[in-house]
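note to self — DONT lose this again. spent like an hour looking for the file last time. sequence + predicted structure for the chain T wanted, 141 res
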Amino acid sequence: MQVGVASDEAVANRCVFVIDPCEVSRAALQFMLQDEYETHEWRALGEALGRLRERRPELVIVGAGALEPDGSQAMDRIREASPATRILVRVGAPNGPEDRRWLACGAQGLLPQPLTVEAVRRKARLALGRRAPLGIGVEAG
């Protein structure tokens, strides 16, 4: 079942890799994105590099913990394995001290905690160059 997915997105065969040492974040991201994208998950960057070279996903969401301790070299390895792949980095709190570091290393965006379905899908759409719908809350009385 595809919840809240537009028909043009449901038939597009886009691939997203989630690489995150945090099992809870990894599973949550996979669950949030699986309705719109073919989503695969790995615990460590080393595990995913071979598949990155084979599959060449459109988007990689990588936890900041998977990029440590050599963040810029890890980002280079992702880009070397799959040059056209866009990269989002899952970070802890928004506007943390490390955030600018990941953008300087080549990330297209940051995905701060707490993770919500709306925020994750919106960031993924934007990273893939798609329009992100503007949600306007309406209350009926």
